[in-house]
Amino acid sequence: MARNVYGLDLGTYDIKIFDKKKDRIWHAKNVIAMKDKKYIFSVGDDAYEMYEKAPGNIQIIFPMKNGVIARFDDMQYLLGDLLKEERPFIRGAEYVIAVPTDVTEVEKKAFYDLVLHSEAKAKSVRIVERGLADGLGLGIDVLEEPGAFIANLGGGTTELSVLSYGGIVMNRLLKIGGEQLDSAIANLVRHSKDFIIGRPTAERLRKEFGVFDQSTGSFLTVYGRDMMRGGPSHIDIPISLVRAAIKEPLRECVRAIHSMLNRTPPDVRRNINKNGIYITGGLANLRGISTYLEESIGLPVHMKTDPELCAVKGLQRIILNKTLYRKLSYSMLDEDYRWLR
Ligand SMILES: Nc1ncnc2c1ncn2[C@@H]1O[C@H](COP(=O)(O)OP(=O)(O)OP(=O)(O)O)[C@@H](O)[C@H]1O
């Protein structure tokens, strides 16, 4: 029986998995609910459901932080649990993992070790730079493309990549993503309304308001804690407040995009000017964000449906195509691996 191959995109917010044998992609929240600091209570979407609702003895843990593995053992357990249904297939399987480029070698190695030293007894583990996987998922011919700019707007990070002829010319990982926008919204509600809302509520505000393209008069009723009266209550939050909160983090992304474009080598830049830029990642679903970026950057902005799945779709292409697999994935144990020589 042929061994199975899995493509993994371990995000700060969501894990995306491609299963070659079943030829399917699925995803789950990257969250663990821990009881009494000892026992795993639930994982994935079930654990996220409990976020900010669970009793005091249940702790909700996000094993990834800012795009890298922050709690190795928890991440390993969570991944093992998500793949549990596949038990007959996971032992001795091969894994191809998308990893951000602008991280330290130790952080990158943690992705590698996570799978290599798990109970899955992986046969091989290969790494793909996430910007390249994103490019393939967008349908770009990454090996032949002379210049493409991709901004992956994710749950805890924004990764900016300039690609050319199968390589990454420039890359930067910013600590700005959905999580930071939600904190900005929750902080502004707290300071301007004396009202405490949780992260899932802030996320709901961000998702339900078409932040850039709706009338200024709309508002949403949310539940939380009134700091003046000291009890649970509800409040109407206007769209203007959400816009004000997310303005600065989004401007920081725009400044970083400008700065990277300005440093891009002229020949590559010429192609980017011609093609425009691409956005991927879950935050690209924020209604009106492509128009906002187009106006701020002065270049056309393109995206595909399900932008959060671009990187894992790119891994799927790599796993199913021998040339892409050979040219774009590498093992950290390879003799010619650039950092270990
Ligand atoms: N319709 C939507 N409107 C606004 N935001 C959305 C929408 N759908 C998803 N998101 C946001 O996308 C983010 C998750 O995106 P994604 O799955 O790309 O992140 P990730 O890969 O887990 O994180 P990272 O790439 O930072 O490690 C979350 O913050 C989520 O709230």
UniProtKB/TrEMBL annotation:
<dbReference type="GO" id="GO:0000902">
    <property type="term" value="P:cell morphogenesis"/>
</dbReference>
<dbReference type="GO" id="GO:0005737">
    <property type="term" value="C:cytoplasm"/>
</dbReference>
<comment type="subunit">
    <text>Forms polymers.</text>
</comment>
<dbReference type="InterPro" id="IPR056546">
    <property type="entry name" value="MreB_MamK-like"/>
</dbReference>
<keyword id="KW-0547">Nucleotide-binding</keyword>
<keyword id="KW-0133">Cell shape</keyword>
<dbReference type="GO" id="GO:0008360">
    <property type="term" value="P:regulation of cell shape"/>
</dbReference>
<dbReference type="InterPro" id="IPR043129">
    <property type="entry name" value="ATPase_NBD"/>
</dbReference>
<comment type="similarity">
    <text>Belongs to the FtsA/MreB family.</text>
</comment>
<comment type="function">
    <text>Forms membrane-associated dynamic filaments that are essential for cell shape determination. Acts by regulating cell wall synthesis and cell elongation, and thus cell shape. A feedback loop between cell geometry and MreB localization may maintain elongated cell shape by targeting cell wall growth to regions of negative cell wall curvature.</text>
</comment>
<keyword id="KW-0067">ATP-binding</keyword>
<dbReference type="GO" id="GO:0005524">
    <property type="term" value="F:ATP binding"/>
</dbReference>
<keyword id="KW-0963">Cytoplasm</keyword>
<dbReference type="InterPro" id="IPR004753">
    <property type="entry name" value="MreB"/>
</dbReference>
<feature type="binding site">
    <location>
        <begin position="155"/>
        <end position="157"/>
    </location>
    <ligand>
        <name>ATP</name>
    </ligand>
</feature>
<protein>
    <recommendedName>
        <fullName>Cell shape-determining protein MreB</fullName>
    </recommendedName>
</protein>
<dbReference type="Pfam" id="PF06723">
    <property type="entry name" value="MreB_Mbl"/>
</dbReference>
